[in-house]
Amino acid sequence: MSSSREAVQDPVLPAICVEAQHRLGRTLRSLYERTVDGQPIPLDQVDLLLRLRHRERELRRQR
Asked: Which region, left, alpha or beta, applies to residue 50 given φ > 0 means left and ψ of -120 to 50 means alpha?
């Protein structure tokens, strides 16, 4: 391997402590609940989910 390739390696990122991970998780969860979780599912996505569920049932019946 050439020396120029060795110099391009990704830097090692520092790990965060467990308490920081939990705090970050709580913050992200709270943010999600206040923004995305309360929104209705768009009709095109509901349609897609219904079609996928129907297809799953068809495949189960074929077994």
From this structure: alpha
